[in-house]
Structures are given as structure tokens and as C-alpha cells.
Amino acid sequence: MSNPEAITAIADFAEELALRAGELIKHEREQNTLRTDYKQQSELVTHADVMADEMITGAIRERFPNHRILSEETMPDLSQAEHLDTPLWIIDPIDGTVNYAYGHPQVAISIAYAEQGRVQAGVVHAPFSGETFRATRGTGAALNGNPIKHSGATLPRDSLFATGFPYTKDSLEPLVNRLEAMIHQCRDLRRIGSAALDICWVACGRLDIYYENVSPWDFAAARLIALEAGATAGHFSEVPAGYPADLWGRDILISAPAVWETVRDILRKASGYE
Ligand code: IPD
Ligand code: CA
Ligand code: CA
Ligand code: CA
Predict the structure, then answer these.
(1) Prediction ipTM score
(2) 249 lines ligand 1 (CB under 6 A)
(3) What's the average pLDDT block by block, 10 residues per block, for the chain (274 residues)?
(4) Which atom of ligand 1 is nearest to the CA of 99?
(5) Residue 29 and residue 27: Cα distance in Å, rounded?
(6) Which domains are delineated in the chain?
(7) Fewer CB within 10 Å of terminal CB in the chain, N or C?
(8) 271 alpha carbon to ligand 3 midpoint, in Å?
(9) Crossing angle for the helix pair 195-203 and 216-228, to the nearest 10 degrees
(10) Pair type for strands 188-190 and 160-162
(11) Whose CA is nearest to atom 11 of ligand 1?
């Protein structure tokens, strides 16, 4: 395991890349010439997603040629997460592509760094709001350099929750059941459109609860940020034995600690897990 100084240097590098990617995607959107495409069925991708991915992964490869990379647009090989022997970078060049294409501000670049399947450093940069969330394991989480903490919510009925919906809409029933249960038992719902920002917003208390099924690049950095801000992060179904929990995206639940278990039970029941 790298020493704390080496992890700080890695977080500095990740932050530098996230800021550079932020400038790049802002510039591309300002040109009003965004080229969009469909990856599958209804998942949108723009040329800026690919440009930012190439820039970030290229810079990592140059500096750390022996590290592995898992990135949404150019290296989406999920089996990389199972190689615990080599350091792994997990990249989402634009989290919130639909927001990005529609001119909304809730867009982030997410960069995480893991050793032996555990995320050690995470940066989530939101270029349109000028906010950078950052954490290294064991040292707390910050927003633009200022320490952050979860909301301290104690009851679901006083909690604002966020979730998201998959691009493929073939099995909506469990999702709708969970939503119905949560809407009845919580204060209100937000569908912001960037999983990384949803989680960072739980970390800084703008939201109380987040749950979803997502990919490692959506949450790897933000999950560490939430944990370091004192939030509770886990899953409301079992993580397969041997798979790194830091990178398992199914049935993720991240919230203020005091509501976590109650919400887990609500989601398990609504999902038919018990
Ligand atoms: C998506 C966003 C969205 C979430 C989806 C993700 P993308 O990522 O994080 O909030 O609901 O599940 O796929 O495709 O914009 O990088
Ligand atoms: Ca995507
Ligand atoms: Ca994403
Ligand atoms: Ca993305």
C-alpha cells in the first residue's frame, strides 16, 4: 500500500486532470457544436465524453504505465476491478451526459484511485458550478478545500433522497416499487442526473439519502468522499463474495448514518429481498 504522501500526490494529480477535463468539456459545450450519438438503445454519448476520457486516460498511462484503468468511454472492461494486484484508476469523464447535452449545470468529472480493490483517493469536479469534492482515505473530505460533513438526518420522513434510473428500461418493476416505498416514507425526491454529484451532495448535507444501481465509474470516487464525510455507504443486497465492495455498483445505499439501516430495510422489502 502506498504511503500517505504518495496518495496525496496521486489525489493532486487526479484533481489536476479533473480540472483540465472540466475546462475541456466546458469549452466544447460553449462551441454549440456538440456531436451526440447513442451507445446502446437510449444511452447518449457526446464527442466531449470521448475527448475527456482520452485526455485523462492518456495522462494516467503516461505517468503510471503499469497501472490499470477502468473508464466509461475508452476502457469499460469491468473485469479490471477484479485484478487486486495492480493499482486501478476508475474514470467517468462526464457523469451526467444527458445534463451536459441539454445545457444543465449538474455535470461532473469523476476520478478514483484504488489499491487492492480499496479506493484510496477520489476527486469529483463539477465544472459548471466550480465545485471540487476531494478525499483521501483516512483524512476526511473537502469541498473546494473546506471540510464537509453529512447532514445528520435522523428520520426518513425528514430526509431528502436522490436516485437515478437506468438507460435500459426493461425491468422497471423493482425500481418503481422502491420509488413508491421511498416517496411515501421520505420528505421528497430529487433526480439530479449525476450519480457522482448525488453522492457528493449526501457527503456535504445537501441530500440525506442516495440509492441506485450504477457502474464503478459513477460512484467510486464519490463513495470515498461520502465515507470520509462521515456518511454510511453500503449495499441493500449482498455483494458477491470476493468482489471489492468499493467497486460493486448494484443496490448501493449511501446516507446519513442514523437513517441508513431503516432505509436499507425499506429498500430490501420493496425489492422483494425478504
Ligand atoms: C449516469 C448518471 C445518472 C445515473 C445513471 C448513470 P452518465 O451516468 O450518473 O445520474 O442515474 O445511472 O449512468 O451516463 O451520465 O455518465
Ligand atoms: Ca454514460
Ligand atoms: Ca456516469
Ligand atoms: Ca459518463
Answers:
(1) 0.98
(2) no
(3) 95 98 97 87 92 98 97 93 94 98 97 98 98 98 98 98 90 92 98 98 98 97 98 97 94 98 98 91
(4) 15
(5) 5
(6) 4-147 (3.30.540.10), 156-270 (3.40.190.80)
(7) C
(8) 23
(9) 10
(10) parallel
(11) 164
